[in-house]
Amino acid sequence: WWFYLAPAAAVAALVVLLWPRDIGRLIEPEAPTRIKGSGRLSYVIEHQGRQRPGQPRDRVSAGDRLQFLYALAEARHLALLGRDGAGTVSVYHPASGTTTAPAGAGSSVQLPRSIELDAVPGPERIYGVFCRGATPLAALRQAVAASPEAPSFPAGCEVETIVLQKERR
Q1: Cis before 94 (ω within 30)
Q2: pLDDT digits (tens, 9 = 90+) for 143-168
Q3: Which secondary structure element, helix H or strand E, spans residue 75, and what is its range?
Q4: What are the residue ranges of helices labelled H in the chain?
Q5: How far are the Cα atoms of 9, 77, 78, 132 from residue 102, in angstroms, in the given order?
């Protein structure tokens, strides 16, 4: 049985050593059937210097960093908003301006900035809002503030929501 175990151990070691380190390659978005042009949002968590792909209902803590990526079949406008456990709504992308930002078509496109989580515990909802055209951020913020579980975004916008559970550690 040693004859079979040695090559398997060598292959496992190569996989570990050659595993991609590039954050954009950590996540390969699935190719689900989607409406043409609709977006997909994914993320990578950095916790205590270690990165891993995000999963639904992840448990996170203050100080963790989240790097977001998106996939689009065709160009849209994009905004990334969050609502923390205290009900505070934040716009994470774009970093400035009053409307959603243009987002080109592509797979595993990394947003320019990551976010560091604060110490407010509870559910952390992240909304990736993909719109056909430039859309006022004020309208998106208002929709999230009014109904965090089912925001009503303007016509021409689709949303992908990520829900995280932020804990004190």
Answers
A1: yes
A2: 999 999 999 999 999 999 999 999 87
A3: none
A4: 2-18, 23-26, 137-146
A5: 47, 4, 6, 10
